[in-house]
Amino acid sequence: MVSPRERMVVSAALLIRERGAHPTAIADVLAHSGAPRGSAYHYFPGGRTQLLCEAVDYAAQFMADRLERATSAVEVLDELFDFYRDELQRTEFRAGCPVVAVAVEAGDPDKPEQARPLIERAAAAFERWQQIIARRLAGDGVAEPDAAALATLVLSSFEGAIVVARASRDVTPLDRVQDQLRSVIDAKTRKGSR
């Protein structure tokens, strides 16, 4: 059984990925999650910042779990792109990455105490995903320094392709980037296995 607190974290992540961080209010999270009024400050005494941080942590864990199940670098690539292609189409191109939304929107210079923990959480999520991708690349024979650099390219290209696909309301950017990255990975893994 999922607790009201857990439902609120998941709801926050889902709302952030579709609306962005700023427009996602605690009242919206309560309505989406079905959590009782007044429970937000009970479960999240740090307020909205704590809730957003935990939503980023949830999104980071969700994607890390998916990536960890892949047994090769190409499977990691396909997991990233195929999952988000489906999500974009299912949500009529509203579903972006909640970690990107928080990272982009957390730069309020008037509230650095609120922005810092959010940016740190987003950076940790991206680093974790890159490490998983790099491990899979290294496992497929790519030299470690190249694996780290290629993992950064994969993740950055993936996130950028999501943004372009959302803006164009078309999955073609995802398809093209996935194909190009697959070629790069295939070339690197063949070279590493010689």
UniProtKB/TrEMBL annotation:
Q: Where is the HTH tetR-type domain?
A: 12-52
Asked if Metal-binding is a keyword of the record, the answer is no
Q: Where is the Transcriptional regulator LmrA/YxaF-like C-terminal domain?
A: 73-180
Keywords from UniProt, A to Z, are: DNA-binding, Transcription, Transcription regulation
Q: Specify the superkingdom.
A: Bacteria
Any Pfam family matching the protein: TetR_N
Q: Which GO terms describe its molecular function?
A: DNA binding
- Its name, as the record gives it, is Putative transcriptional regulatory protein [Mycobacterium tuberculosis H37Rv]
The species this protein belongs to is Mycolicibacterium parafortuitum
